[in-house]
Amino acid sequence: MKVYLDNAATTPLDERVLEAMLPYMTDHFGNPSSTHQFGRKTKSAIETSRRAIAGALNVTPAEICFTSGGTEADNLAIRGSVNDLGCTRIITSALEHSAVIKTSAEMEKAGLAEVCMVNLKSDGHIDLEHLESLLNTDKKCLVSLMHGNNEIANLLPLKRVGELCKKYNAIFHSDTVQTMGHYAFDLQDIHVHFITGAAHKFHGPKGIGFLYINRQIHVSPIITGGGQEREQRGGTENLYGIVGLGKAIQLAYEHLEEHQEHIGGMKQYMIAQINEHIPGCEFNGDCRSEDSLYTVLNVTLPENPNSSMMLFLLDIDGVACSGGSACSSGASKGSHVLTALDAIKPNRTSLRFSFGRFTTREHIDFAVSKLKDLCAVKENAPGTKVRAR
Ligand SMILES: Cc1ncc(COP(=O)(O)O)c(C=O)c1O
């Protein structure tokens, strides 16, 4: 059996999404910028997708700019805020995705903005009082804080942070890559300038995403070339990716409650199974469901001699999960998120399990039985690790 519990890294493509994309890989191949009928056909497919996204977020289609994914969308928002909107202070956190942390650091290194890290509470939530004190400055601020943390699942109170940003006339960017397609957004009700999406996190194709850019602001492209995407991103559009993204978002929101119930149920089931079968585990972040992304669970296992090999051994046993974000999994360095929260425990491994529409109870039972087996090892000779059977 092979069990995939790494849906925060990426999700499998929904067959219906593939079906929607296929004609745009074969029959409909025109360049969307061409004015003849071949081009008009594909241009129209792009605009249909844009309307589907805009409809889901309650914004206008002109506020959606297609990108190659979440990383580029984060880059466009941060670079645009500094280069075009006059932000000289970037307020962010140590828990952000590297697309935000590294881009902000680059802005600081270039002498264009200072980066201020907001304090974190012990449960991984943002200290909103400290955020307000950082906003209380003469400098024009950009606040870049993610909605749902990809490692520990904590959710940011988007509306409250938006109100704080409004009070201090700050630009607000939220990386919503992990929550897009998983939570409803009504952007008429939230004061936010930029949010992001990546299709592959909700059963769409890889290499396509978008940035919502509030119509009151304009940023210059970071990829210059033709005038595509209303002069905000040069280059011939990723046509079939865009079509897939539109279909994926439509499916995600058409069946949102059903997905929330199913996926959230999988997470709760895994918590219960771990508690029952593997004593000594600790869950990282705030696990209360109203403040926690229902797709992600981060657990520190009890001390055991397999700790350093745990990911590898689980993989051999057919269970795919992660040691952190996709970028750090497999790498020897630990999670920057757990490090920032001082949650790295000596000789103990932390794993991220993340669930999707296609996760079943059988998958979780299988994963927990393998975990239990690997955690219950006993050493029969120095240097030899044997699984308990
Ligand atoms: C929170 C977050 N932001 C940004 C990204 C980057 O998205 P992409 O892989 O589409 O560039 C990811 C992907 O793991 C993510 O989890």
Overview of this protein structure:
The protein is of the alpha/beta class and 389 residues long. It has two domains: 139 residues, Aspartate Aminotransferase, domain 1 (Alpha-Beta Complex); 240 residues, Type I PLP-dependent aspartate aminotransferase-like (Major domain) (Aspartate Aminotransferase, domain 2). The protein has twelve helices and 14 strands. The strands form four sheets. Strands 2-8-7-6-5-3-4 form a seven-stranded mixed sheet, sandwiched between helices. The chain has a three-stranded antiparallel sheet with strand order 9-10-12, with no helix packed on it. The longest helix has 22 residues. The two termini are 18 Å apart. The relative contact order is 0.16.
Any chance you could write out the topology, listing elements then pairs?
Blueprint: E1 3-4, H1 15-21, H2 37-57, E2 64-67, H3 70-83, E3 89-92, H4 98-109, E4 114-117, H5 128-135, E5 141-144, H6 158-167, E6 171-174, E7 194-198, E8 209-213, H7 228-231, H8 239-254, H9 256-277, E9 282-283, E10 296-300, H10 310-316, E11 319-320, H11 336-340, E12 350-354, H12 361-375, E13 378-381, E14 384-386
Helix pairs in contact: 1-8, 2-8, 3-4, 9-12
Pyridoxal-5'-phosphate (PLP) binds next to helix 3.
